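fyi for ur records
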Amino acid sequence: MPGIKLQQKQKTQLSAQQILGSQLLQLPLLSLEQRIYEELQENPLLELEEEKKDSVDDAVTESGLQENDDMFDSLDRFRKSSLNEHRDTSSSTSDDFGGRMSFTYDSTPKERFFQAVQHDSFHETLLKQLALQEGMGRREIRIAMEVLGNLDSDGYLTERDEVIIDSLEVEGIEVGRKELESIIRKIRFLDPPGIAARNLRERLLVQLQVRQARFDPAAFTTASLILREHFDDFLNRRFERILKRLGEPPEKVEAAINAITSLDPHPGSFHDEGGHYVSPDFVVTYENGELTAVLNDRSSMSVRVSDRYQDHLKNRKGPKEEKQFIRQNQQRANEFISAIETRRQTLMKVIEALMKRQYDFFVFGPSRLVPLGMKTIAADTGLDISTISRAVNGKYVQTRYGVFELKYFFSGGLSTEEGEDLSSKIIRQYIAEMIGSEDQSSPLSDDSLTELLTKKGVNIARRTVAKYREQMHIPVARLRKKIF
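which gave:
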């Protein structure tokens, strides 16, 4: 006869209310609104209050794609704020911030606060990358726009240089062939690499050199040779002919062909150039020396529990099933509203903590971003790291320097000689700036970049410089010299 054994075990079980709260917390604003409307359809005890103002929605409706001048201004601000030196300022930030930070909790914010924000289209993303490079002003960006406007659906540049030059001349911009080709080359080495190539062979060569670190050196060399001198045989899969002409061992040629076939002949997507819109979950403003955070939750504030069924509950003679149905849905409505309120409080805690930790960013711009981990925000707010992760997922904040995803504010960093912490994003910007202004006949090696960063007071290892360079898809020095 089998024995009976008793055991005690501790088991954490989330309540339905906690699960609902977690689900709503991770939803961005537009998804939350959709979730609310779905709940309204399912629960007759939940209803929307009458909108107090239509100005916010009107502002959203009226907002559209910016004109070219506005985009240029945006790119200028983006470049200047991103590539400015990490300068000292006379403004110091105390622990309590001297009362300079306040938080507004308003369901009917001013009309100017909230607007639909367009996600960058593929072209706009490329232009922002170009704006970070040395020597790319409004004129150069306008030339790049003309180039991007002549790409086909697969990202190839099919128009001749003369046509692009003539089109720019009509608009009052004179450009020579050499300058045009220089800007085209810069576009080709953006992320993703290979855009604006004239043909597949050119695109694959660009990608091969950008991703050279991924391949065995011998495979990389042979792959480059195949693309440059035996491309037609490669396209027609005449591998025996390639073997004979190269005189290399089969395994070496096979490794090279595998390297080529791992490249992407169709980088990027050109089918959704209109972009899509997001509504910022927060707006942070800086006026009169004071930071103010506003939570954009206009729809969730208007949800309430309906009182039109109360008479049914008070009627003692009413059907029990009907009363039970009303009570269940009333409880569900209360839980839903409570979860929305918890979401709101959590988000305000997170943005408040971010404003304190990234105060200089909100006041002075992206060049003042400091290293920050989610563990720090969790400690500041008293929340779990998993809660912080859900809270920042897909959420955006509108600032005086543009709209940023909350994940942008979290990054690692390194210390300077003065003990100051620099965000890894800023260090990448330093590296991009140095490479952008280097002598192309003698590009900077990773050792040289490390030395220059050390002179700036940044304590960094050469391997870290190489890692950041590769993350930005910038080739090694010898390949930059060969290409440019």
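The chain has a mean pLDDT of 76. thats all i got for now
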